[in-house]
Amino acid sequence: MDRTRFFVRTAAIYALIGAFLGSHMAGGGGLELSAIHAHILVVGWLSLFAFAIYYKVFNIPKNSKLSIVHVWSSFIGVLGLTVGMWLYYTQPIDGMRTFNTIFFIVGGTVLLIAFVVFAIMAFVHGKFISEDA
Questions:
Q1: Do residues 48 and 16 lie in contact, with contact meaning Cβ atoms separated by under 8 Å?
Q2: Interatomic CA distance for residues 39 and 36, integer angstroms
Q3: Pairwise CA distance, residues 27 & 121, whole Å
Q4: Range of weakest confidence among 27-31, 86-90, 121-125
Q5: Residue pLDDT, tens place only, 2-38
Q6: Burial grade of 63 (CB within 10 A; 0-12, 13-18, 19 or more)
Q7: Domain of 27?
Q8: What keywords would UniProt list here (predicted)?
Q9: Domain presence at residue 133
Q10: Using CA of residue 60, residue 66, residue 67, residue 68, what is the dihedral sign?
Q11: Which long-range contacts (CB under 8 A, 24 or more apart) does 87-91 make?
């Protein structure tokens, strides 16, 4: 899998969703979804795009188990956090409050794990992170 392409394409989708949501809020005059909008743009667009740049700039081995865990936990965590946040704040289906809360918490926890793995990778694969060619 091309990690850079995967992250850039996924980030582009989140950027589009975040921009659309922001436009919708501005046009509708309501800011009820502003926390969701902000998280979609920050963790969905900015973080995933930053990860894409990381994999493009630094020669992190493609067979790195940390890298594989990082890519998938980032993807699942961002999706879980943003969808969970939307479910939690909007409660679109009656009687699902507990499920929505758990979905939100699990998504955020998986994303936290992705950031922990990223921090670990910065040290484990430190020899690949350099200005030297």
A1: no
A2: 5
A3: 42
A4: 27-31
A5: 999 999 999 999 999 999 999 999 998 788 899 999 9
A6: exposed
A7: 3-128
A8: Membrane, Transmembrane, Transmembrane helix
A9: no
A10: positive
A11: 89/32, 89/33, 89/35, 89/36, 90/33
